Amino acid sequence: MNGNTEPRSHQAAHRVRLALALPIAIAVGLVALSGPAAQAAKPAAGASLSGVVNVNTATPEQLQLLPGVGEARAVAIVALRKERGGFQRVEDLLAVKGIGESMLERMRPFVTVTGKTTARRL
Asked: Is 118 helix (H, G, I), strand (E, B) or coil?
């Protein structure tokens, strides 16, 4: 014994249990972080956005400020805008592949079809 009251065999067993438990705890934590509850707990992407994006004049980079809009979706918005000659209503974005009702509702507070793009990350 080396100053500790536990025999070496107990200390070794404890280390083995700890070594086995750690990867399991990490795996469980990663699953929990990627599950539906974690997605619901995350703040909306647009929560750190201030202002609006005019989808009729915005660049692909500006469109990517919108929640749920990455490079591919921004390009799709610009392509549909060119094809249609612009968007008359925010709801016209539903015609863009990958934008459904729920995504549109997340984007809606930050989208306009008139005026200047004033959006910026906070």
From this structure: coil
Asked whether residue 1 is domain-assigned, the answer is no
How many other CB atoms are there within 10 angstroms of residue 86's CB atom?
13
Helix (H, G, I), strand (E, B) or coil at 49: strand
Q: Are residues 59 and 117 in the same domain?
A: yes
Tens of pLDDT along 5-37?
A: 667 777 777 677 767 766 676 666 654 455 554
pTM above 0.70, yes or no: no
Is 53 found in the same domain as 28? no
pLDDT at position 6 is 61
- Pairwise CA distance, residues 122 & 110, whole Å: 13
